## 1
Amino acid sequence: MQTVKAYQEMVESALKDCLRTQPAAAASLVEAMEYSLLSGGKRIRPILLLASCEMGGGTCAEAMPYALALEMIHTYSCIHDDLPAMDDDALRRNRPTNHVVYGEAMAILAGDGLLTEAGAMMLRDAMHRSDLRGTRAAEAILRRAGIAGMVSGQVMDMQMEGKPIDRDAVTYIHTHKTADLLTAPLEAGLILAGCGDEAVAAGICYGQHLGLAFQQMDDLLDVIGDTESLGKQVGMDALEGKQTWVALRGVEGTREDIREETRKAVDALACFGERAAFLQELAMDLTHRVR
Amino acid sequence: MQTVKAYQEMVESALKDCLRTQPAAAASLVEAMEYSLLSGGKRIRPILLLASCEMGGGTCAEAMPYALALEMIHTYSCIHDDLPAMDDDALRRNRPTNHVVYGEAMAILAGDGLLTEAGAMMLRDAMHRSDLRGTRAAEAILRRAGIAGMVSGQVMDMQMEGKPIDRDAVTYIHTHKTADLLTAPLEAGLILAGCGDEAVAAGICYGQHLGLAFQQMDDLLDVIGDTESLGKQVGMDALEGKQTWVALRGVEGTREDIREETRKAVDALACFGERAAFLQELAMDLTHRVR
């Protein structure tokens, strides 16, 4: 079984090279994209994709373009989300945000570039396959990143700011803003491995529960965490009147729910037997700090 | 042979429905996306794609998802380009720009949504085909819209503002900012039709020359056109110190070059014989005002 660290190293090494394959790209654009893409981070989404593909009987090598694309999509969404017109954040992972370093115009274009290149990178791989698995995996990722997924989650997050806390709204926002992009790697990874509908559905179930636990944890850390260890300003959610799980359920209620969602995520993979061990442990490790 | 109007009506009708297939999407997001997507326009890019596919022996029906996706990509690039941090335009096609109506945050997300949905829409079609033509067509479109194409063109356009006019810079900007997105429909349309490399290369050649003529015309109209009939403020390029063809070659030199690029575009399609008539006439019609 692989370790988190081994997966991380594989992803880091591949990320370093992946934008260098486009000689026609403007150097200043690539620099701004890489500033955010190579700024560390836990690489959870690509790890989930590689591990899912292996769990389903596939290899890391065949899943890598999709794993990198997913990290590019996550990075683009962070860059746009940090813009002055959006969350107006000056700090991410203890570094100045993209627009602080490169200006707003370049940050918008760096985000656009990462999103488009994510799609192009997946299709460069998919078009050379002998089947449609790559095409289907790319579809799953863009669907969950788009207007039926993450982008709508962002819109609702913004529009519900300052409104009374509403369980349906919090659930919609958490599902689409966060869980969809943690479900995409499971769906795509298992499709790439050639799994059938039932196995893919089990992976989706894991991703959704893990995604909810993940965002509930994020909400909780904004209340009980500290700025330095998180690398970003805490206490902002309440200040901005965000729809958070803590506002809905309180600190102890949120802890309970994180335990419950984590358990459901772990259980969802039972059908994979021992091959699920890595992803089951990962779910428990990710949330153990706050459970 | 189809007429421009017949193609336009087909595209308009399909555009009206295409975002309504996503029930999970936030209604306010879809409204902002449709405000720009359905604001008229000549629909040149989708028409080029449909006509190319027909020229290559394919049908409009099989090419439509890709044609709509291309218009979505064009629309997203206009929305982001108009933002205060970019060109800061308040008017497009005689209507207030997206951010003026919906605010900057929503305009950024509407653009992100259009770009992602463009990819997802192509892949929903491509994944149900029996071959990889759809995947290859989608790759061509995202490649030319991305960091080796349009996005890098935008970056250079911005970075070269106020610098001395430079032929290489103008050519790079025109090729990537404009011609790449007019070449993509030729490449994708002919791939969808099942054409071989040589025919696709001829289409690419047409697209590149037409694209250069198109941007040269845009530069010229900014000098000799009027605000009302163009639906946007004229005279801005010189004011902002943009790299334009008129600054490089003067009004008469630009007219000469437009004639030359149009002729090269028309000649490039000779290998298609009579099937090329529509696209050849289109190239001449598009530029006749200023030739």
## 2
Amino acid sequence: MSQILHSSSVKKLITKGLKAECKSLRENNIFPQLKVILVGSDPASLIYTANKKKYCEKIGAICEIVALDEKISEADFRKTIDQINKDELVHGCIIQLPLPKHLSHLDVGHLVVKEKDVDGFNPENLYALMRNGNDSKDFISCTPKGILTLMQESQIAVAGKHVVIVGRSMIVGKPLAMLLTNHNATVTLAHSQTENLKTLTKSCDILVSAIGKANFIDETYISANKNQVIIDVGMNTDAQGQLCGDVHYERVVNLVSAITPVPGGVGPMTIVSLAQNLLQASKNKLSL
Amino acid sequence: MSQILHSSSVKKLITKGLKAECKSLRENNIFPQLKVILVGSDPASLIYTANKKKYCEKIGAICEIVALDEKISEADFRKTIDQINKDELVHGCIIQLPLPKHLSHLDVGHLVVKEKDVDGFNPENLYALMRNGNDSKDFISCTPKGILTLMQESQIAVAGKHVVIVGRSMIVGKPLAMLLTNHNATVTLAHSQTENLKTLTKSCDILVSAIGKANFIDETYISANKNQVIIDVGMNTDAQGQLCGDVHYERVVNLVSAITPVPGGVGPMTIVSLAQNLLQASKNKLSL
């Protein structure tokens, strides 16, 4: 029987800890506050930002969605972020992606100051990750951090294991490669230009798919030994309009040792990581 | 017959271009200048810094070795670098590693300002590399850049190929993984904790060793198909006191399609990259 890596119980456990931590911060007159910058009204972005707000409030933190007109000028957009960067009451700030076309050339990594960059996109935070500085004050990108937490809490060892990550984005693939390398995994970063992808995916211990292609990874990508762990980062819509992952779950679920479902796998862990980073940012400010 | 990837002819060709570029900069009253900070008198460091100075002068650039006492205080060490960071006449600054013990806790990536960081160790330069910003104004770490140049000039394609890099340092392994990923290679980063290393090294198209262990990679790590490219980054001393690489050259040379010798392979390319970065830094200043 394959182990289904639902994140609900892990999330529940961590949430309990975050609530206690938040309470203790509030008792020290620190009120963790997140600003989520949302430009325009992309339907998926509306859902994602609402979920982030809901979870922050659940643990006792303050979260404001800063909704900006989709035609906002670059100057006004930058001004809004700069004000948040300087706001003493705000501990974390994230920019919901994607940005509208006229802002999409901006490098989000350089917009939010590193101390409030709870998304872990700032060069200093990525550098700390790459360097494995082991400073818990730095912020690790939320999805990679959530994937590691889920595996750790599910007793899936990564040290020495061969992990194949499909997808080389700055949000998942690349930072996850660094994070798992630092945790002693042997990581292969595969992508659209990879030759013999199936040979690679069949040969690894842990397969992470982060490419955004509905049901792309099917049984032909999986080892016959039924000993692989499959982590599905995809959040796609299939031909029937249903939410689905990068992995063809039904065709794969009985061929593996463990697999994350979509929804209910990696997705919720990303928000958990965000909240962890927000509380860390609040504690960092305390120690300044 | 295996192709021996001597860097001499590539170096000659690039040197010619660098000389012409340097001449043209001087005609515009830009005199490219590198400062090499050397603390103490480690014998290998003395040779490396002297080689860097010699090559810079060969192409027409100015290079000063700033020799500091091995007992210099951290404060004085930092002050020296700060002065160089502010010196309008200096275009590039590198810190020769290793530093003595009392300075080895310092993060060299944060010492030299990004505009003069011709070693490519600054967080902003590593971020640009990770992000594949394609901005030629950023500096790519010298050894990774030199390896890519050597392969490109030797008509060794990397796109789509599976590259296994052994060694996950911040100077070679990690930045090289990012650089080759950006050039569409499929990169596996292996290291001391990798299980089944030989299976991995035998299965790849291109094997890069950067671990600093004399003659570690022997015929047992190599595919029987004689179709692999071997890049040896090691600069070690063997039991007989001879300079040697990570790869047992004699045992491997006839089992591969191409291999870099040590010395005369990757090593000289690192200095070429450094000079390229220095001239780039000088040109960047022109355009400011």
## 3
Amino acid sequence: MNKLSIAPPLGRMDLLTMAEASQLVKSANGHLAPLLRDCALAVLSCGSHADDANDLLASNQNFKLEVVGNGPLISFLLTSPPPQAFVDGEIIEGIREHLYAVLRDIIYVSDKLTHWRTRGDSASDITFRILRNTKLLDEQPSSPLAVCWGGHAISEHEYDYTKEVGYQLGLRGFDICTGCGTGAMKGPMKGAAIAHAKQRRRLSRYIGISEPGIIAAESPNAIVNNLVVMPDIEKRLESFVRLAHGIVVFPGGVGTAEEVLYLLCILLNEKNRDQLPPVLLTGPESARAYFESLEHFIVDALGEKAKSYYKLIIGDPAAAVRYLAQNVIENPRPFNWDIEIQKELQIEFYPSHDNVAKLKLSRSLTTAQLAINLRQVFSAIVAGNVKPSVIRSIQSNGRFKIHGDADIMMSLDTLLAQFIKQGRMKVSGQYEPRYEIV
Amino acid sequence: MNKLSIAPPLGRMDLLTMAEASQLVKSANGHLAPLLRDCALAVLSCGSHADDANDLLASNQNFKLEVVGNGPLISFLLTSPPPQAFVDGEIIEGIREHLYAVLRDIIYVSDKLTHWRTRGDSASDITFRILRNTKLLDEQPSSPLAVCWGGHAISEHEYDYTKEVGYQLGLRGFDICTGCGTGAMKGPMKGAAIAHAKQRRRLSRYIGISEPGIIAAESPNAIVNNLVVMPDIEKRLESFVRLAHGIVVFPGGVGTAEEVLYLLCILLNEKNRDQLPPVLLTGPESARAYFESLEHFIVDALGEKAKSYYKLIIGDPAAAVRYLAQNVIENPRPFNWDIEIQKELQIEFYPSHDNVAKLKLSRSLTTAQLAINLRQVFSAIVAGNVKPSVIRSIQSNGRFKIHGDADIMMSLDTLLAQFIKQGRMKVSGQYEPRYEIV
Amino acid sequence: MNKLSIAPPLGRMDLLTMAEASQLVKSANGHLAPLLRDCALAVLSCGSHADDANDLLASNQNFKLEVVGNGPLISFLLTSPPPQAFVDGEIIEGIREHLYAVLRDIIYVSDKLTHWRTRGDSASDITFRILRNTKLLDEQPSSPLAVCWGGHAISEHEYDYTKEVGYQLGLRGFDICTGCGTGAMKGPMKGAAIAHAKQRRRLSRYIGISEPGIIAAESPNAIVNNLVVMPDIEKRLESFVRLAHGIVVFPGGVGTAEEVLYLLCILLNEKNRDQLPPVLLTGPESARAYFESLEHFIVDALGEKAKSYYKLIIGDPAAAVRYLAQNVIENPRPFNWDIEIQKELQIEFYPSHDNVAKLKLSRSLTTAQLAINLRQVFSAIVAGNVKPSVIRSIQSNGRFKIHGDADIMMSLDTLLAQFIKQGRMKVSGQYEPRYEIV
Amino acid sequence: MNKLSIAPPLGRMDLLTMAEASQLVKSANGHLAPLLRDCALAVLSCGSHADDANDLLASNQNFKLEVVGNGPLISFLLTSPPPQAFVDGEIIEGIREHLYAVLRDIIYVSDKLTHWRTRGDSASDITFRILRNTKLLDEQPSSPLAVCWGGHAISEHEYDYTKEVGYQLGLRGFDICTGCGTGAMKGPMKGAAIAHAKQRRRLSRYIGISEPGIIAAESPNAIVNNLVVMPDIEKRLESFVRLAHGIVVFPGGVGTAEEVLYLLCILLNEKNRDQLPPVLLTGPESARAYFESLEHFIVDALGEKAKSYYKLIIGDPAAAVRYLAQNVIENPRPFNWDIEIQKELQIEFYPSHDNVAKLKLSRSLTTAQLAINLRQVFSAIVAGNVKPSVIRSIQSNGRFKIHGDADIMMSLDTLLAQFIKQGRMKVSGQYEPRYEIV
């Protein structure tokens, strides 16, 4: 039986009070234990070639994790951990950091979230607290941060493009922040790392912002030197937006499209006019159709003007990054408090038939409000396509009924059909609409 | 009207949530405003030659302080501040740091203390939390910390001796921590600073731990580069003991003697046998009588063995420091959790007639318990000599009645008489005992 | 016409006297100009995919280089440089460093070499001076340095093996030093860079030691952050040996075999018994035949004992590196003066018929001396196979006549034949021996 | 017999070739041994209270110094060194640095000077080479350097003034460079050190530039963290001028006046109009007479315009330093090559009767040339007053004969008389002119 005790990295988890340490051990070994185990396993498997989360879990059934307290000191006790995380019995330092980042974020949030919500902290305050607790905000950023979004399952050709964009970003002094998985989340970091080495930058930040539901499925890649696990998708998105000094969107699937819509919701808010970082949509020629479908939908639904809030550059990484560099936010702050994010974007939208029926999709709304509602419809339809519980609900209760202008819905319909044709969505069998317009 | 806005030092007070910032502004301008103003004035007057706190306050009646919030950002607005804190309109960086340290500690503690106490946090946990919040514990100490105690009103000759000891400490790589005023609290830092320069140490720590009742009366000296304001005397003492890798006691008055008793209480606890840093009592020839009186009392009351818990070296700074260096705690930790500090030492002892009457001073107690009770009697007698409210209480209710062994009380009596003779206590008129033995 | 002025990196070339600067400009634009131009072109083409030096030169015929002086300040003026060295008109910092490293080493050596030789400086002193001038020796090494040798034209499979060994070296804290080209000189650096990132080491050294005849043919790879150009092959070899705290030999061709022989010459010297770093021969299964042929020859010629001076590990990168780590030189010094390197190894051996005829290959010699003579025969035979001038000389004057024991020569013959069979040597047509034994 | 071996500070003297090390040991133990011993003794006595060099030498007659080589490594072997340089048998790090600085400068210069002069290096190139060899020029200065001149034997009141000016300089971010002894050379460093601590500057430079004839008489003070020993007074003066971003002249004696004249020689050179740092003359009220006498002479001899090249501020340290800060050289370089220093200022003027007779002091000369000649006359007269050899020469050969305008000479005469009256010159008996005008 292979048991290993893993102490925290220097300067982490060693500043707890007795009470904090004992509470942490209790929480970590209590109801959070399964989540913690799976996240830890993902982190320890960094660089493995397991195809998906299920494989990973299946091939490590003997892996056990315990959090052990000794006065104010905390350590992990691992049973049968994946061997590639170790060198001659010593854990690789970066993996040790990720392991304790997972503990830090999951337990910290779990212990405090109810308290914060009870006393009425805003979602932005909570997002800030979690980021602050990671020490990510401690230092004034000396270089701008490019947040990169896009699909994790893109083609090798598109992956190479994201690497080249990362290389061009790195040459121009950008640090990189992504969602911390593979594909468009890994390529920019790899490219930037090579460029940073060539430019002799030694203190680059490669920030990965994950989420408990995602991290267990996708190991953070090895380059990430700041791993953050936000408690939900909404806070993860808010973190991206408030940390970014420039945003790059690579091709992806429906998720990526929904993220673009999220950005537009914020950009269309008049108060954010001078706050938001530049938004760049870019990919190789093979991604042209994807972005053009998306843009067509945006113009149809939100008007020609919506195009002016981002820049689309196809097939020219250097030109794309030059655009970003020229429009980057000056005097970067670690966390941009000045962006106003609408409440609807900060809370999870659950696509029940009721909730969907209440949404309005009418040109009588402000464009910003229409964008918000659209993102929710969008979210519902996507869920109807892929989430088992929502699929079941549709099977029982019939299609979603949406009250709205027909042309908007048709645009959305067209967009999804094109995504399927382009191979950007995985659907089995004949696609069948999940909604009807009332 | 001279108004100046003072932004926080880089990396301090700029990581607040909106809610925290607005709460802080409210607290700082509310019932804590007078305390904050007086502490800030002390800090801004660093290096001034005002004889005492009253002079300081008197000569700066126009000084006003406001804490101003702008979203999550906080700054001070000062009206008519003492000019010596500024260069060409810019505040001196070290004073800016002290100013924000005062804000940080007073407000942080004020906002949290009730909450902590309500939920039952231990005194040690609270002490740790306050120190952690100052970032003092963030880094593994690379050099041992000598905590220096002693009188603030010692003679120039004795002051020079504390400088020489500081010089010898600095030559041997010690950082310095004191109570942050003048006299024996300043000399060691000055001496160490010269030695550190000669030894080419650039990152030395000069830690000053003050208390709201003290800081307003005594400006922290300019050398202090880590100012901490603990909420009460007991947590200040506990901080000293848990941070120290070696303790130096210079001659002082009754207060210093009480501190030595505090140390003995801890040292006499069997469980602390291998935990405590070495304790050194030292001074020039002129201090021999002071230390001999003290030692005589200790042996009388607590037994010959109590002498073995400290080392007394007179008139030889190099030999004294060599003793400390040879016995210094190895592998220093930032905060020594393993010392057991008795509850009676963590809470304030209020010398009412009732409380004093309840104390037992009998050789039937364990030596450790006797030491604790003695420290409280000691504290009561001192208060009876100097604290107006206690003096009045004795005038109304008669002398304290102490139940105890007569010989112990006589020893204490002798000690105080000797201190008066040596000029170590300021009493006006004929000294008259404040107690009688029952 | 695209002209660019390139200032030196911060802290380089800006500390010249007026006289030095003007002499440097004169030298750089005088007889050294063609060499400097070609080396600079190689450095500027870093990362290009030109197949060989000729292609590189052919495709950059318009490239011109001038060194310009302005008082004590020096800069480059480039005409039509390869565009990939620049970002938005700014040169990539690492390439700027390489450019000035070339200038520094070539000009410095050229200006001083005659002077040093005239006054009788030893070869080791000269090697040291050149390395010292690069500032490579300035800091006490905090991590051990693995010197990696091997072929630049190995298969992709063997290249991946060198990367994996580099990764294992990097995980165990080794810095990397190679000959600065592709293949086995690039793989270990790439692997180590990934491992260093995972282990959070930020200040790793990737040292490339090149030579004017080599650098123009092979661009230093991008990872090299210390480029040194030694004036000849012998000083380059001596640098490797004196800098190394461990030596790794990957499969290569005849050149690699000659380097192993060079190491053995030094290892067989009794005085070096405790001085030399551990020597590891390693490769994947595909390299087993190569190393076994080499070992067979070594045992035949120099005796069974010669095997004990190195370790051969096939197909297990982790085990191989563990061996190196366990035997690494402790307390590493920046330059190991204590190794005794024989004079014959420090000067070039020119394979004239006369020089070869004078060599003795007899078991009556000490093994160390036999090894030295063998290396020279080896060098002559290789030259006879590949160097045009030597081939012509053999065509005119007949085969080399070697005075020696027949069995030694037969072993060598067998070795070369096996290398040809294994595809480790490029020969056209039927191989024909270049020597006969007298 | 107390013998101690002193290794070099980390990173110094450990990068020598075998040949360099053996040459250094030979030189250090050869004809330079007595000079090296006396300089080392001065450095080891740092902080001692010996009144003068003679006392120092007298009280350390048993002190012996040997330089020992071990391959390329060098160390000192000291017999009976002054004890205050050591802590528990370990040398104080700053003194170790000074000790090796002395070795470095004296031996380096001694070994190279003849070589440089033979090949015709300029005085500026040589000055630069010596400074470069100290690594003082290695880093781009991040803060301006104030060079402070003035007497070493000033009153305590004037010494306190230099401390206050140093404090004001330090508050405004200046580093300090002086001649490395006591009085006006120590005060500014002490004041600046306190201000730097208050401003939290950790990497301040306190540069002391000495000379072999001076250092043995005056221990470098403890604050100096860059000690340089220039080979002669002229190169020392040139170093000051080319390193300075601002120059402060405190009251002194004739030597200080001569230094002001040296500055004026450079300032009056049209080509230096925009090159020179601001020159500030300052002192307390007690120094007003000194500066007014000096200014009177300057105006008489060189015209009203000469006053415009410096600023005289009496009794207001803050205002004085504000002037310097407002006029400081921007974008400071480590060594200002652009100042043109006349040849006559770079070579020693020996005051033989012949040399003095050849000097012209006529208003027909350019003002710059007149200033140069005046400085030499000045130097001759001073020597005639104080240097034994020159006094004897005057006794044998009569007064110096000076060909010049009578009014200029009378002004000089007046100046010297006033200095005597002010107690700025030490003369015994009745002052008698050493010259006559022809």
